[in-house]
Records
---
Amino acid sequence: MPAEFVLSVARDAILTTLMVAAPILISGLGLGLIVSIFQATTQIQEPTLAFVPKIAAVLISLLIFGGWIMRVITTFTLDLWGDLGVPFS
């Protein structure tokens, strides 16, 4: 197996991982920032106020982007199997 092929597969795997994780991480980060600003403004320092909305945002983003995430992972896997020469149907 040539080194270029291994590097190409590794690059594709990293890019696929970033594409799959991005919507979930961005939604959690965005809502966490909004909640932090709200907490700083109102001086409410309740720890559960920071975690519960983030969990809800991650679950909602999984519901919204779940089909797309599965399509990206499936496409990557089928392309990888095709490049390796593994027969599939």
Note: Helices lie at 3-42, 47-84.
---
Amino acid sequence: MREEHPHLSLVRRLWDAGARGDADAFYDLYAPDAVLRAHGVSSPLAGEFKGIAEILDYLARAGEIVDDSRSEIIDIYTSDAGAVIRYRTIATRGANYLDMQYLYVLTIGGGRILAATLVPTDQRRNDEFWRTH
């Protein structure tokens, strides 16, 4: 039987913490100075977020923008340098509907997430959905 890569366990804990809304778990999973980069051109959620507090604020703002949202993992790829989560999000905001895949690219070191990059598979559609004005 093949042994599970240690980054796979970290990714599963991250996903479970997000699903439970367990913000405290993020302090164990992310390095204190971790950076999240969210791709976007005109999305209010695009940018660079430094430190766990800013990352949690980013996640809270995303939750406030939508009426309903759910995500499911499609694949997880791991290496000694990090992991990539390919997932699908379905969300609604008023009459706006989003059904799209994303990549969450993680750099991992010392058992914690050092950096994360969120990449939508359709940048234009992503920006249109998340734009609030």
Note: The chain has a mean pLDDT of 93.
